[in-house]
Design brief:
This protein has 348 residues and is an alpha/beta fold. It is built from 12 helices and 13 strands. The protein folds into 3 domains: 39 residues, no CATH class; 130 residues, Rossmann fold; 133 residues, Response regulator (Rossmann fold, 3-Layer(aba) Sandwich). Strand 3, helix 6 and strand 4 form a beta-alpha-beta unit. Helix 5 packs parallel to helix 6. The protein is globular and about 70 Å long.
């Protein structure tokens, strides 16, 4: 039976009018939607699939991820390598670098680029880093940002969550958990030079001003996503601010904050909101020290990043952003946290 435009529309999850515009190259269709329509049309046999020449190209990718003990980033790193291994003729190398020193990172990027066609990076939004990435793009390297975006860089795509929306969600949850209690709220960030951390803080402060104006938000403490630094900073703030009622951890270091809360007797009394479900935050949720985490799926993030960056190297059309779903997780709805399969990139 011959396929119709209606069949393509059903397969792609769009309207028949959108299919018509996409297949005939007319304006008004987003690149990502056009690609989905074309793939659906090829899959059901409405159009003939093009020769697989692009898929035969060998691709070398490099992913630059902050070093340190951040559990989410370690999980994401494993998922990136596994996702690349699952694709034919895609080879990936992971670099865990000190991304908190922008000049050192910029120099490191230049060295990495010699052996890579495409570079995925989580990095500070800093002039020296931006310039290094612009220079790499000028030499034909394809650049993708993930987790935290970078402004004014010729990247092929950003893969991650809407960080400002995530910050607003954290502020909404903290304010609702407090139930009208007044007092000070502490904020901890890895580095506000990360655009993602800056956007989360902006979103958190905006909704707090709109909906919970009685709360007094303290200046953000930058802790380099380090549990040791987080512990010392939290211990000082707890001693200094007897009216502390809430804590928002924008990045990593939550184990250190939790330790300070437990030692001070504030665990369970002070509302604590953070990011990313890991084996550590899972335990803190169950204990009641942590009230909620805003989670993003590192396996989905890695798979999307590898596929988009490899596709860009091979000349496929790319979206400018691929926003992932965010999820609020509490003690009562903690999902399974299965280990990442090193061969497939999936959570078996």
């Amino acid at each position: 039976m011959a396929m119709t435009i209606a069949d393509v529309a059903r397969a792609a999850g769009v309207s028949a009018a959108t299919v018509d515009r996409a297949l005939n190259g007319r304006a008004g269709v987003h690149d990502r939607t056009r690609s989905r329509v074309m793939h659906a049309a090829e899959r059901i046999g409405y159009v003939e699939a093009p020769p697989a020449r692009a898929a035969a190209i060998e691709v070398r990718l490099a992913f630059v991820v902050p070093g340190g003990s951040n559990t989410f980033l370690a999980r994401l790193s494993r998922a990136l390598l596994a996702a690349a291994q699952a694709l034919p003729r895609v080879h990936a190398t992971l670099y865990r670098l000190d991304t908190y020193r922008p000049e050192a990172l910029a120099a490191g990027l230049a060295g990495i680029a010699r052996d890579a066609d495409g570079i995925g990076v989580i990095a500070l939004d800093h002039p020296s880093v931006r310039e290094a990435l612009r220079e790499l793009a000028g030499h034909g390297k394809r650049i993708l940002t993930l987790v935290s975006d970078i402004s004014d860089v010729p990247r092929v795509a950003y893969v991650g969550i809407d960080n400002r929306a995530a910050g607003r969600l954290a502020g909404h949850l903290l304010g609702r958990f407090l139930g009208g209690r007044q007092g000070s709220v502490a904020l901890f960030a890895g580095s506000l030079s990360y655009r993602g951390h800056e956007e989360r803080e902006m979103g958190f402060r905006r909704i707090s001003a709109e909906d919970f104006p009685a709360l007094r938000l303290l200046p953000a403490e930058e802790i380099a996503d380090d549990s040791g630094q987080a512990y010392e900073a939290a211990r000082r703030l707890l001693a200094r601010h007897a009216d502390l009622v809430g804590i928002y951890c924008i990045g990593g270091g939550m184990r250190g904050i939790a330790r300070a809360l437990q030692e001070s007797g504030g665990a369970g009394r002070i509302v604590f909101i953070g990011h990313e479900l890991t084996e550590h935050t899972r335990r803190l949720l169950i204990q009641g020290t942590l009230d909620a985490v805003i989670d993003q799926d590192p396996v989905a993030e890695a798979g999307e990043a590898v596929a988009l960056l490899a596709g860009a190297v091979r000349g496929e059309a790319q979206p400018r952003a691929s926003l992932l779903r965010i999820q609020a997780i509490f003690r009562e709805n903690i999902p399974d946290l299965a280990p990442i399969d090193e061969q497939t990139g999936e959570t078996p």
